[in-house]
Specification:
Helices cover about 35% and strands about 20% of the residues. A hairpin with a 5-residue loop joins strand 4 and strand 5. The two termini are about 15 Å apart. Bound molecules: ligand BV8. Ligand BV8 binds next to loops.
Length: about 240
């Protein structure tokens, strides 16, 4: 349904987030100067081959990140809270896709969140593939609570593995009127290609909110650069005012 200007009255909105949205909560990003890949090579800790080669090193890498996430000084920031408010007030279809494995969107009140790269607070059986809540270290001695046999791994999508929820994501991208990307460098695929999928359709609004222009910057129709805690709440206010007009 469109109004006299041809704009969708109840526009469908897809939001993609990356590590930049959690940076001001104290969670390091990957490619900033103080990011995770400046401290460790992703080939050693974020691939199935690394896990096969040295499972303890990989488990330690994720155990350390899980302990940070569970520490008392980590909390959702104003950008996470603004997205929960956006979902609550949006008149059309709304989907939040995150590349992040933290639970800060959920803690801020977001309900419909697709973690395309998995979740740090869950573990998966390497045999029966059952996924379990796991707010503690994963050790080599742990076995699957369901089948009782499998060693456990982080429920995280490593490089070379297929991201989760891709069918639902592709359908939402093909139907959305507005695509908003927040806090991602646009360097990891297939998430980096989502804006191109939306750009195939004319009249879609494609907005990038990031500290600096991302690798996919040219494919966006609107750009807001700055820290997420400042630019995301302001953008959400403007978007809600616009859709209520
Ligand atoms: C797949 C979970 C097949 C683990 C992650 C060549 C071409 C195309 C593809 C490839 C290629 N070579 C290899 C590939 C495939 C590969 C890939 O893309 N490699 C890259 C390195 C080239 N991709 C894969 O393997 C994926 N699988 O392709 O399968 C397939 C696909 C579809 C269908 C069928 C089959 C799987 C990739 C998933 C890997 N797992 N994470 C973990 O967390 O440990 S990726 C990891 O990096 C994150 O999850 C995130 O997704 C990704 C990118 O990170 P960002 O979130 O963007 O963070 P980054 O640090 O890069 O950027 C932060 C941004 O925030 C910056 O721009 C910064 O300016 C900004 N920022 C900082 N502070 C703030 C801020 N913004 C606002 N406010 C602030 N305060």
């Amino acid at each position: 349904m469109t109004d006299h200007t041809g704009r969708a009255k109840r526009p469908s909105l897809v939001v993609l987030t990356g590590a930049g949205i959690s940076r001001e909560s104290g969670i390091p990003t990957f490619r900033d100067a103080d990011g995770l890949w400046a401290q460790v090579d992703l080939e050693d800790v974020a691939t199935p081959e690394a896990f096969a080669r040295d499972p303890e090193r990989v488990l330690d890498f994720y155990n350390a990140r899980r302990r940070v996430l569970l520490s008392s000084d980590i909390a959702p920031n104003a950008a996470h809270v603004a997205l929960a408010r956006l979902e609550e007030s949006w008149p059309g279809d709304f989907l939040l896709i995150t590349q992040n494995i933290d639970d800060l969107h959920e803690r801020a009140g977001s309900k419909r969140v697709l973690h395309m790269h998995g979740e740090l607070l869950k573990a998966r059986c390497t045999l029966c593939e059952e996924v379990h809540p796991w707010p503690k270290d994963i050790t080599l001695a742990d076995t699957c609570p369901a089948c009782g046999r499998g060693p456990m791994r982080p429920h995280v999508v490593w490089f070379g593995e297929i991201p989760l929820h891709m069918e639902e994501i592709t359908q939402a991208l093909q139907a959305c009127d507005i695509f908003v990307s927040i806090g991602t460098s646009g360097t990891v695929w297939p998430a980096a290609g989502f804006v191109a999928e939306v750009a195939h359709r004319p009249h879609t609004r494609r907005v990038e909110l990031n500290l600096e222009p991302s690798e996919q910057n040219a494919l966006f129709t609107e750009h807001h650069h700055g820290p997420a805690t400042r630019i995301v709440p302001a953008f959400v206010d403007a978007l809600l005012a616009d859709v209520r007009e």
